[in-house]
Specification:
Largest sheet: 7 strands, mixed
Order of helices and strands: EHEEEEEEHEHEEEEEEH
Radius of gyration: 16 Å
Shape: globular
Helix content: 10-25%
Structural class: alpha/beta
Number of helices: 4
Low-confidence stretches: 147-167, 184-198
Mean pLDDT: 79
Number of strands: 14
């Protein structure tokens, strides 16, 4: 079952790949025009971010952040700034799934810091998900990640994933609320990645 409600926030709209990635993700998840945001100034089909723009999220909502990441942060924020950003700037009080669609944020302490902050502030959330490795956008609203860069091949100007790549790629943290919409656990090593509730 997919998520009934989807929000998207793009970081790095000035960077062509992030912008095109966000467009594809918005199409794939049917993000409504009034729920597609861009941090900083608006970017054509993305609304400029404003405080409390995600305050109406609920446990049936998936929030997708698209941008460049690393083990120390994602988008314009360091790991320890993400929790306060979500609560104090985005206005989130409850959310089913928070997804970071960018490289390596899941390999650092960021997801745990965000989850602990949300829990301490009384925010209800089902899951938090972040990639642990470099990711590539497929052009169809999907991101792929894996152990080997050569798991991709080109044909006719498009990138394709070699399906033999089975590396554990996603960090998932179970939140403090029960949700019924988790759909993409195929990339997980559950013993390692699906942590106990906080």
């Amino acid at each position: 079952m997919g998520w009934p409600r989807n929000f998207l926030l793009l970081f790095g709209a000035h960077v062509g790949d992030a912008r095109s990635d966000a467009r594809g993700v918005a199409r794939r998840y049917n993000v409504p025009d009034d729920k597609k945001f861009c941090y900083g100034t608006g970017e054509k089909e993305f609304i400029a971010f404003s405080e409390d723009c995600m305050a109406d999220a609920d446990l049936n909502t998936k929030i997708i952040f698209v941008g460049h990441g690393g083990t120390l942060g994602f988008g314009e924020f360091s790991s320890d700034d993400w929790g306060p950003f979500l609560v104090e700037k985005c206005g989130i009080k409850r959310v089913g799934l928070i997804c970071f669609k960018g490289c390596k944020f899941g390999a650092g302490s960021g997801p745990e810091e965000v989850a602990n902050y949300l829990d301490a502030k009384g925010v209800e959330f089902g899951f938090l998900e972040a990639y642990k490795k470099d990711v590539w956008y497929t052009g169809k609203g999907q991101f792929r990640s894996g152990k080997f860069a050569n798991s991709f091949y080109s044909f006719g100007g498009s990138l394709f994933l070699d399906k033999r790549n089975k590396g554990t790629t996603v960090r998932v943290i179970r939140g403090n609320a029960k949700v019924d919409h988790i759909t993409s656990i195929k990339h997980l090593d559950l013993a390692e990645d699906l942590q106990d509730p906080i």
